[in-house]
Amino acid sequence: MKRAEKKGKTRYTRASVESSLKRGAWEWAKSIAVAFVLFIVIRTFLVQAFKIPTGSMEDTLLIGDFLLVNKVVYGAQIPGTGYRLPGFSEIERGDIVVFVYPDPYNEYEPDPDYVKRVVGMPGDTLSMRNKVLSVNGRTLREPYVRYVDGLDDQYRPQFAWQREFLKSEVDYDGYRPSRDNWGPIVVPPAGYFVMGDNRDNSADSRYWGFVPQEAIKGQPLIVYFSKESAGPIPWIDEIRFGRIGDLIR
Fold first, then answer.
1. Are residues 134 and 103 in the same domain?
2. Which end of the chain is less congested by CB atoms within 10 angstroms, N or C?
3. pLDDT tens digits, residue range 50-66?
4. What pLDDT score does 24 carry?
């Protein structure tokens, strides 16, 4: 750095000040770039934030819960490819998962992500009778399930996709599934049947089909914040302090 000496004091020239400012700006820009790259890497391969927008998973997850999603557990997908990094756990029945919403034609919308619970694994036979879910001929124990209304046995045209996966003994033409009575259907390879814990208020696999394995992004890990209000800045009494830090099961 250029400087001028006068009577024992250091005096910086205009050129030296400009040089110092340029170096400072460069260091600041590098710090911002490194932070941005780290953010992208962490969000893509490690952890993603997720907010619960609906009540389909109540009372396990509430509207206004903010979650951290573990993307390492099943192996994060490498962007732009069909490849995934190695995970340290397999998807199991009972897992809560975050996934890309599949449309009726098995194409993906970039947004939104959905969160549901896995109730059917590849090869499983599923059926529901009067709200009670059976897997491979046995009633599935579901202490987490919530019911909010009575039995709905009205035919649902949205469920017509199930005919393709009916067990052979089921009358294909006479099959008229409802929200609380359907199946038995067989889950295809690499597909998962997911449902909301708030069983009477959840748009899930009953309506739009199976979730392909490659669509599953990760597993919610913890509630890092929770609030009752819809506004961006909650009042203190709207924050659910008792839920902050809760592990998700």
1. yes
2. C
3. 899 999 999 999 999 99
4. 64
- Domain coverage including residue 106: 46-243
95 cis-preceded (ω within 30 degrees of 0) = no
Domains contained in the chain, number: 2
- Name the pTM for this structure: 0.79
- Same domain for 132 and 61? yes
Tokens of 221: 């890990």
| Residue 80 pLDDT exceeds 70 | no
Q: Tell me whether residue 116 is one of the annotated catalytic residues.
A: yes
- DSSP per-residue string spanning 137-196: TEEPP-TT-B--S-----B-GGGGGGGGGB-TTS-STT---BSSSEEEEEPPTTEEEEE-
The pLDDT assigned to 3 comes to 44
Q: Half-sphere exposure (CA, 13 Å, Cβ side) for 138?
A: 7
Q: 144 pairs with which residues across the strands?
A: none
Instruction: Kindly state whether residues 14 and 129 are assigned to the same domain.
Output: no
User: Which entry of 7, 9, 22, 116 is annotated as an active-site residue?
Assistant: 116
Residues 228, 9: Cα–Cα separation, whole Å = 62
Bridge partners for 222 per DSSP: 68, 247
- Catalytic residue of the set 9, 22, 30, 56: 56
Is residue 56 annotated as part of the catalytic site, yes or no? yes
pLDDT band at 189 (very low <50, low <70, confident <90, very high): very high
Which sign, positive or negative, has the C-alpha torsion 228, 234, 235, 239? positive
Q: How far apart (Å, rounded) are the C-alpha atoms in residues 51 and 220? A: 11
